Amino acid sequence: MDITLIYYLVPAIIMFCCGVYGFITRRNMIAMLISLELMLNAVDINFVVFNRYLYPEATEGMFFTLFAIAIAAAETAIAIAIIINVFRAVKNVDARDIDKMKN
Question: Band of the pLDDT at 103, cuts 50, 70, 90?
Answer without folding.
Answer: low
